[in-house]
């Protein structure tokens, strides 16, 4: 007869939800530790509720062992189980698990090792924001909405119409977790729900997008996604004539961030509280941008807009193709020509029979330790280069008379 001495270590009010993490024999015992009530290895899809943690000291041992006193969710099983074989969490009907203590809201993968809880403790969203402005995006999604998102990406795994970061890995597993996102000091970080897939065949998880982005992509009509340029060509694609890029469908949530890449796909237009944002895929990330600032320009066919020629891609001075395009521009229609590059543009003026470079403007990602040129969330820092001088300022201050570039419609050629 065993009859260990039982001492209560901790009472739980409310009861603590637990699931087994053991893949080997894991027994539920009676109080005298003489009868095996059940082998919890066979109850991986059962949530148990612990009312207390106890210490059991057995006569033949010189040390004590911690056990939980647990009851199954249907109340059919009751007894003591070795604490090391259990983990805080719940089984969710349909094959899902939730481990809130470890910031895992919902996952398709059952955790069997403590190391599997490790994930990105911080997720760099890029850009700067206040704790208050992100509050709407820290809300925990409902279980039903998370299940819907998880099932969607598992069903659409390897679908090339999806953003590159969300295309592959979902069949191996999907996790909805909250990760820290740093905000402008002194507010400190907040936790934002993100969607994660395993990285390759490893057990490491990688945040693919915020949950908000994953949900917005899911509700987009993939058959009506507008694609621009070749995925393997960093120059081809739609150009974005504004340095403001947002992580959420609300321009007040995050601002002053730049992304030096062309737009490959547009999933939605005119969304957000002001119906002025688009959900787009850059080369590697999915973000929100101002709908009015997206413009497609065929690299071989500059367009005339608001009295100014616009070109992109290979239409750059210094290359044979660029010189050919310059020679074909009609200066009688406009003596100004802007070549849109990654993160800005270069302006040329027709003088004495030649197109001469005037200046370049590059949108600048403002760093937290630098003084901001402006505190206006609708503005973005830029760097102006004239070949002799480099000036940092904000768009309205620097570009008076040029601010209409923020209001260009989507142009398809």
Count the domains: 3
Evaluate the radius of gyration.
Answer: 29 Å
Percent helix range = under 10%
Would you tell me the structural class of the helices and strands? Answer: mainly beta
Largest sheet: 7 strands, antiparallel
Unreliable runs? 365-381, 386-413
Number of helices: 4
Q: Sum up the overall morphology in one term.
A: elongated
State mean pLDDT (0 to 100 scale): 79
Euclidean distance between termini CA atoms? 86 Å
Describe the model.
The protein has 413 residues and is mainly beta. It folds into 3 domains: 5-88, Roll (SH3 type barrels), CATH 2.30.30; 91-224, no CATH class; 226-413, no CATH class. Helices cover 8% and strands 36% of the residues. The protein contains 4 helices and 26 strands. The strands form 5 sheets. A 7-stranded antiparallel sheet has the order 3-2-6-5-4-1-7, with no helix packed on it. The longest helix is centred in the middle third of the chain and has 13 residues, at 143-155. The radius of gyration is 29 Å and the shape is elongated. It starts with a strand and ends in a 15-residue tail after the last helix. The relative contact order is 0.08. Residues 365-381 and 386-413 have low confidence and may be disordered.
Please outline the helices and strands:
Blueprint: E1 5-20, E2 27-29, E3 36-39, E4 48-57, E5 64-72, E6 78-82, E7 86-88, E8 90-92, E9 96-99, E10 104-107, H1 143-155, E11 175-181, E12 190-198, E13 205-210, H2 211-218, E14 226-227, E15 239-240, E16 265-271, E17 277-281, E18 286-290, E19 294-295, E20 303-305, E21 308-312, H3 320-328, E22 336-341, E23 344-351, E24 354-363, E25 381-385, E26 390-394, H4 395-398
Parallel strand pairs: 21-22
Antiparallel strand pairs: 1-4, 1-7, 2-3, 2-6, 4-5, 5-6, 8-9, 9-10, 10-11, 11-12, 12-13, 14-16, 15-19, 16-17, 17-18, 20-21, 22-23, 23-24, 24-25, 25-26
